[in-house]
Amino acid sequence: MRNNHQRHAAPTCARRTLGSFACTLGLAFASSAYAAQEDAKGFIEDSHLNLLNRNFYFYRDLRNGARNNLGANGHKPVSARNGYREEWAQGLMAFYTSGYTQGTVGVGVDAFGMLGVRLDGGGGSTGTSLLPWDGDGHPEREYSKFGGAVKLRFSNTVLKYGQQVPSVPVFASNQVRLLPSTATGFSLVSDEIDGLNLQAGHFTSVTSTDSTNRDGEITTDYTVLPAARAIDYAGGTYRVDERLSFTVYADQLKDIWRQYYGNATYVLPLDAHQSLQFNFNLFDTHDYGASKGGPIDNTAWSLLSGYAFGGHKVSVGYQMIDGDEPFDWVAFEGTQSGALYLGNAGAVVPFSEPNERSWQLRYDLNMAAYGVPGLSFMARYIRGDGMDNSNSRNPYYTRIGQYDEDADSNKEWERNLEVGYVVQSGQAKDLSLRIRQSTHRSSSGTRWPDHDEVRVIIEYPLNVF
């Protein structure tokens, strides 16, 4: 009869042969995989259910003659369309994450359910992307979406298939509306080497923030290029230590473009209360294959540098769009793009027009340094100029409009103000309130209308188990 020690005994590489080194590496990897699964607590035992309540008020006042052309306004004469967008909604999100079954390959599932409810707003003021609207342009009273993914874990590598909330620099879910956007496909995340996170994915459909359509097309932020049938990406992040990290990714939007991304972040401590921080981002985008989106040749980069002292942080940034086409990135069904990994992306405007250069000045204050933990402030000003697409041969982007030939006269700026507070203890612990105000002004020709905007966001997360 075999005892437990015999059952768990690992094989060895008995003789030194030409393949002994590979054998040793293979056994080490297998041992790691076995150990990881030995630590698995079980499918149910290690499961978690998290709830997130989000209350969202959104008001955008369109200035200098701009009109709201969305929702029911689209059925009205231009002169009768409202000059603002305003909606108030309540969102409830539930996220279930199972543990893994024990064994060499662990099996688990992730699932979510989301509900959005209209509290205020009508067809004449819709268009904030908080709520979907019906055929007549009136926002729905409520909408919901459900989804999930099956996951397999071997060692420290996880393969998933199903509806997910992607979060990589070249394909990132939008998290700044009532409900997040999602995507359906495969993802692979590997953490086999300390400090190195590798990821890859293949997704074929998306669901926008304000949609329940699971078969939404993969579009881009500028909303003018043909939809793509799939997006593939691969890359990773290597964290050298707590101060320095590097990230590299590549994505392929089928028959539209190939896009490459690089990032480097570095923190230089000066003493216990001061540090210098640097964040460099680079995107390089080129059309390929059938080039269904027309010719694209664009390089976009940004450098954001900050000086942190006590509870203060002052940052300055510079961003350059080098190309006659704008810098564009993946969107979710055309209504909302994904998160943007460029330093000068404001709350509304990304400063991503053709040949645009922009500067940023930002100030952050954490009141914990003054005895009020949880309270924070942010003020940011971004100014861009030099936009010029006169040499572009892309029929899609130039359809938006042509800039004045005098590039020096093409200018825009955005100002963002934000105050936030997170409850630190008690029954309402982790309840947060954020009030955001933004203002944008520009010369004629930019795709962003002048506006004054206010957002009020209240969130309350709850860990059920």
Automatic annotation (TrEMBL):
<dbReference type="GO" id="GO:0015288">
    <property type="term" value="F:porin activity"/>
</dbReference>
<keyword id="KW-0813">Transport</keyword>
<dbReference type="Pfam" id="PF03573">
    <property type="entry name" value="OprD"/>
</dbReference>
<feature type="signal peptide">
    <location>
        <begin position="1"/>
        <end position="35"/>
    </location>
</feature>
<dbReference type="InterPro" id="IPR005318">
    <property type="entry name" value="OM_porin_bac"/>
</dbReference>
<keyword id="KW-0732">Signal</keyword>
<comment type="similarity">
    <text>Belongs to the outer membrane porin (Opr) (TC 1.B.25) family.</text>
</comment>
<dbReference type="InterPro" id="IPR023614">
    <property type="entry name" value="Porin_dom_sf"/>
</dbReference>
<dbReference type="GO" id="GO:0016020">
    <property type="term" value="C:membrane"/>
</dbReference>
<protein>
    <submittedName>
        <fullName>OprD family porin</fullName>
    </submittedName>
</protein>
